[in-house]
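Supplementary Methods. Inverse-folding protocol.

Structures were first reduced to a discrete structure-token string of length 146. This string, shown here, constituted the complete conditioning input.
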């Protein structure tokens, strides 16, 4: 069985996005309505500026006691997020997420068209297992090479 790509694995094919001046509260409401864990922050031309995730809300807003109704997403988003091509294999994307501590990866074409956001929830257990095995192998190689 051929391994799926991140685009093939997407459970939600629509892009959840807001502008950088939207409040954190608006972002949380949009994520809640869309039942997703992130919102992409786009400029007026549709270019990707950043991503705001559930983890960002917890660590950069709640833990710092910022007012979500007055804090713009641009102040707490992750700017210039790591993105993957739609043809990236799911296990490769999960490996990136493991190694870099991400939970969400925007999927962007070489022409900068945003297709969606890959989440580990979109991966099958087999694909996660493959990524974990590869991550463990990489750790062993790095340890051996010093």
């Amino acid at each position: 069985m051929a391994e799926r790509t991140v685009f093939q694995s997407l459970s939600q094919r629509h892009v959840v996005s807001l502008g950088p001046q939207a409040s954190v509260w608006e972002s949380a409401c949009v994520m809640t309505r869309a039942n997703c864990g992130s919102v992409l922050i786009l400029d007026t031309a549709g270019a990707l500026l950043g991503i705001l995730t559930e983890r960002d809300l917890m660590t950069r807003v709640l833990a710092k006691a910022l007012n979500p109704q007055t804090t713009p997403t641009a102040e707490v988003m992750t700017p210039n997020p790591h993105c993957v091509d739609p043809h990236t294999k799911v296990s490769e994307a999960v490996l990136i997420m493991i190694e870099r501590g991400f939970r969400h990866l925007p999927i962007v074409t070489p022409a900068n068209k945003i297709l969606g956001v890959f989440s580990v929830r979109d991966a099958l257990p087999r694909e996660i297992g493959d990524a974990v095995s590869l991550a463990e192998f990489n750790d062993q190689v790095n340890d051996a090479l010093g």
